[in-house]
Amino acid sequence: MHLILQRHGDSQGTAAKSVEVELAWTSPGKLALTYVVIGDIAALKLPAPAPAAHTDELWRHTCLEAFVGDAVGPGYYEFNLAPSSQWAAYGFSGYRQGMTPVDSFDDPGVSVETRADRLVQRATLSLGDLPGLRPDADWRLALTAVIEQRDSLKSYWALAHPAGQPDFHHADGFSQILTPAERA
Predict the structure, then answer these.
(1) Is pTM, for the whole model, over 0.85?
(2) Which domains, and CATH codes, for the chain?
(3) Which of 80, 51, 67, 86 is nearest to 133 (CA)?
(4) CA nearest neighbour of 86 among 52, 62, 59, 56
(5) Under 8 Å between Cβ of 79 and 66
């Protein structure tokens, strides 16, 4: 499935021209994501490569993200995937409530390739055993990106943006529904 993220109107950074995501189920419960950022990649502030590890506050800089929740109920998961290969996984009981790290989450294997005009980042999320994601129910998905430039200006990208400031946790951003048949 190929999805195109929308730039938030309040974004100040202009180096990224588009952000697209290809998603595929590699096996039941395993979601492979390929983010493609098109633009002046040399103008972006990319974190230095680092050992793959759960790391907090990745979203403060260039970070590609996914949010997944059961279509019924307020709970959801947030996955932060940095070009450094660092990552984070959190569970929420509701809108920005009850945030807890998902300690048992498998390393998503973040990999990055860069060229002058694009950054390609791949990762695989193991979602099948996460509590609250029922295998026989629809799931809601939000795909997002924070793109920081060397001059510290940022642009914010998402499948859908709520009114007002960028807010990737808002229910309006969970605009893609993933059915059990699509996940098989």
Answers:
(1) yes
(2) 2-183 (2.60.40.1190)
(3) 67
(4) 52
(5) yes
